[in-house]
Amino acid sequence: MRSASISQDFLGGMRAMSPLTVAVMPIGLVFGAVAASKGLSSLEATLMSALVFAGGSQFVAMDIWTHPASWGALAFSALLVNIRHVLMSASLGTKMPAFSGPAKYAAMLLLADEIWAMAEVRAGQARLTPAWYAGLAVPFYCVWVLSSVAGAAAGALLGDPRAIGLDFAFPAVFTVLVMGFWKGRDTGAVLFSSAAAAVFAHQFLPGVWYIAAGAAAGVAATLLTSRRQEVCA
Question: Which UniProt keywords apply (predicted)?
Answer without folding.
Answer: Cell membrane, Membrane, Transmembrane, Transmembrane helix, Transport
